[in-house]
């Protein structure tokens, strides 16, 4: 098992460096555009580390110092740090010394995207609109928009380099650099570099092998799918749930005779495809299903109840699962928002989130507790859980720990009385420990109800 304390403890040391300078406009971008996505605590950690950059001035400090500055515990600092890493605002490096010595962490801060880059990014802009609503999104977009100037009314009078500077013999340039600048400048060191925040989507969110397999090299040469195009395809496929075969059609529709793929045109085509498929409704992560590359039961006939459940959780969206658990009623906005936040911030795949929903519903009297869900989701993200099977196995392995987390939550609201009882639960959730104090809740009955509702959904499908 990997708790936060196995990766980070209070005596571990840290130092801070940056990949650029934070400008005034960056502070507005962070507050108004990033904060709705990562939350105020993650933003506070980011700003605190920027302050530490100047205060520490290259020196080291223990995480006790960060806990005192933030006035919060190490688990919170760790979980908020992961959000900054996931969205591209922070790079973290660790220097592991001897086993009994504290680790040294290097926190490398990265400035946020410029406003125009943020609003051009399909993932970030769409999820910002989902978080703040259409009205505020338009207001923010207008606030950061630069007033356009009609350049056709002007005549360019810019001088070229050769017009301004006289030619200098090559030997003088080399001599000047070697005598005055020194080797550091020649090697490109000590330059202030602005490396803006960029989040990373793994290649495995999209099946490029299948995408290329059905694509004629005569129509779309491999060289046309540049690194930027590939990144755009990943983001659009992740956001809109576009399968590889559909993406082929979209790419064929926007490639020009010179074999150039217009990314802006591809974005428009992806949006149009989604609107046709979903009737103009904005994309929601909770509508997505487990990618084919991560389905263990695809083209396999289930032989056990556990395999039936696995297949079901691989082929249903989190929203549909919540709906079936509620007996066909639409899930509450709060539940949908919670699940969508988990999928976006922890980047958990839909099938894994389904296991999380199923597990939490069984363990907490059919309720989705925000802190409990987020805590387990954070653990699964650190464990890099990708498949339904992996999630089910981890839920079984860590059952006692997860129940302790649930009991800790209960202690904050009421006195917990230990009630020991034995219940029949699914094979992957066999547990032997004290259950929470809730005499009115029967785990086995809840499991049966869940199975009945999912069975009904399978039959109707």
TrEMBL record:
Domain of life assignment: Bacteria
Residue ranges constituting the Replicative helicase loading/DNA remodeling protein DnaB N-terminal winged helix domain according to the UniProt record: 12-169
Gene3D superfamilies: DnaD domain-like (1.10.10.630)
Lineage: Bacteria, Bacillati, Bacillota, Bacilli, Bacillales
Protein name: Replication initiation and membrane attachment protein
Similarity field: Belongs to the DnaB/DnaD family.
Organism annotation: Geobacillus thermocatenulatus
One Pfam short name: WHD_DnaB
Domain DnaB/C C-terminal: 334-393
InterPro entries xrefs: DnaB/C_C, DnaD-like_sf, WHD_DnaB
């Amino acid at each position: 098992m990997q708790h936060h304390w196995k990766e980070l403890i209070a005596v571990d040391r840290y130092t801070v460096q940056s990949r650029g300078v934070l400008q005034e406009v960056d502070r507005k971008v962070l507050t108004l555009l990033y904060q709705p996505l990562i939350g105020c605590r993650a933003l506070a950690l980011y700003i605190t580390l920027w302050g530490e950059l100047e205060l520490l001035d290259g020196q080291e400090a223990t995480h006790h110092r960060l806990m005192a500055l933030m006035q919060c515990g190490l688990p919170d600092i760790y979980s908020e740090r992961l959000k900054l890493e996931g969205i591209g605002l922070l790079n973290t490096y660790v220097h592991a010394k001897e086993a009994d010595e504290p680790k040294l962490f290097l926190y490398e801060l990265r400035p946020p995207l410029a406003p125009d880059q943020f609003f051009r990014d399909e993932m970030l802009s769409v999820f910002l609109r989902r978080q703040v609503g259409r009205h505020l999104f338009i207001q923010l977009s207008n606030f950061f928009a630069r007033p356009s100037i009609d350049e056709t009314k002007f005549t360019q009078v810019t001088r070229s380099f050769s017009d301004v500077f006289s030619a200098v013999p090559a030997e003088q340039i080399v001599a000047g650099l070697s005598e005055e600048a020194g080797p550091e400048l020649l090697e490109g060191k000590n330059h202030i570099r602005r490396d803006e925040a960029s989040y990373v989507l793994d290649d495995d969110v999209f099946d490029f092998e299948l995408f290329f397999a059905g694509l004629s090299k005569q129509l779309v040469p491999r060289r046309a799918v540049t690194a930027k195009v590939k990144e755009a395809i990943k983001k659009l496929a992740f956001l809109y749930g576009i399968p590889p075969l559909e993406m082929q059609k979209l790419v064929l529709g926007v490639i020009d005779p010179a074999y150039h793929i217009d990314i802006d045109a591809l974005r428009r085509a992806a949006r149009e495809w989604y609107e046709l498929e979903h009737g103009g409704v904005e994309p929601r992560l909770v509508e997505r299903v487990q990618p084919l590359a991560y389905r263990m039961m695809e083209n396999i006939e289930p032989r056990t109840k556990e395999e039936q459940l696995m297949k079901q959780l691989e082929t249903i969206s989190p929203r549909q699962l919540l709906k079936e658990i509620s007996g066909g009623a639409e899930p509450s906005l709060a539940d949908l928002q919670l699940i969508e936040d988990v999928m976006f911030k922890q980047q958990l795949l839909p099938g894994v989130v389904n296991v999380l929903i199923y597990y939490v519903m069984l363990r907490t009297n059919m309720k989705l507790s925000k802190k409990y869900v987020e805590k387990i989701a954070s653990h699964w993200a650190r464990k890099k859980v990708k498949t339904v099977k992996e999630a089910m196995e981890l839920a079984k392995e860590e059952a006692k720990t997860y129940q302790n987390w649930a009991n800790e939550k209960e202690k904050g609201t009421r006195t917990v009385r230990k009630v020991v009882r034995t219940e029949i639960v699914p094979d992957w959730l066999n547990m032997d420990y004290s259950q929470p104090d809730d005499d009115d809740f029967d785990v086995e009955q809840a499991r049966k109800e869940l199975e009945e509702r999912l069975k009904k959904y399978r039959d109707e499908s």
